[in-house]
Structure prediction request, 449 residues.
Amino acid sequence: MHDNYLTVSALTKYIKRKFELDNHLTEVWLKGEISNFKHHSRGHMYMTMKDDRSRINAVMFAGNNRSLKFLPENGMQVLIKGQVGVYEPQGNYQLYIQQMEPDGIGALYVAFEQLKEKLDNEGLFSESLKKALPTYPKHIGVVTSPTGAAIRDILTTIQRRYPIADITIFPALVQGEQAPVSVASAIQLANKSDLALDVLIVGRGGGSIEELWAFNDERVARAVANSIIPVISGVGHETDVTITDFVADVRAATPTGAAEIAVPSKEDVQQHLNNLNRTMSRGLEYLMNHSKNHLNRLKKSYAFRYPAQLLNQKEQELDKNIERLTKSSLSSQENQLKTFSQLNQRLENQHPEKQVQTTKKELAQLFNRQSRAMNQLYTAYNQKFIRQLDKLEVLSPLHTMKRGYAITYREDGSLIQSTKQVQPGDAITVKVKDGSLDCHVWGIEEEKK
Prediction:
């Protein structure tokens, strides 16, 4: 029997020491495909790196993966820097990853596509969530750097197109590690303010993808999506597209374009006002012509051709109004008498002197109110009657006769309107303003056409 048996732990430590002393294993540059990926709740990432022939277990601790711009996924080809070591409890060798980036495409691009897919699956890009922009905004908020070229372009454009709009700037960092938090906080501050903002412009001028990266951050995207105020995104140049553009209610190609979308042109507003003025003028002209035509039709109506029938009609209406007045008066008197009887009955049952005096006062007030009501009702109907008589007098032939005209009737009382209604020798009656003339027709002379 051999005297120098090793324990499993001792052998594992020996092998681990060999790995640590081998310079080829302490800094390994590896290319492979990720599989069995697991992101632990404590932040560590566990995976298997493989190619078409072999595989090796790997781990990337939270302290190293915190700076990743993308989230590793199964099937992703990556480039890795790390070292090979031994996991003593199981005696397995594994790869400890220190750096990682996608193989063939940039990490920022991968992060962009991953966040875009995530937010799209949540529905944050849905058209149904887009809020409409106001046509004539009174107050505009701007989230950007107060010292950049973007704010100057925005202010100049709004002042040129729609100078009556108020503008409030919410300063924010638009570049660097603190930029996402700064932009998201400024958007939230604008929504919490009591400025009654109508629209919010969020953006910055052009730059590299790294410089624009704050607007590809999930915190900024969610702040835009949660904004009660409609948001216009104006980031970079026309070719630049960010996550903020997809979430915003409206995307503009540049900050200047965002300002142009936010406000109307004063020339367009003036043109719209001119069009409204022309439409209103045409409407008033049509209404006046329609009213004139209606008035002319009324003048030619039955009532104007036959004033006697109109007078009879108004006489009947007057009789009905007098009957209603009489009924109303009797009803009012009956109600008052009923009230009076009830009061007398209460007095007979109770006999308190104070109540008698109070009731007498109430009764006097009721009679006064009744008298005033009767007088008002009588006055109203009397004035209405006088107005109707005035109208009838204007329409009456008697009014016309006072100016020297006469009305001619046949013996049967019908009105003569044409020479064809009489023959020579017919007896006729001519009514003038102060009486009637009995006449005979001696001759007829028709008007030559």
Q: What stands out?
A: The first strand starts at residue 28 and ends at 39.
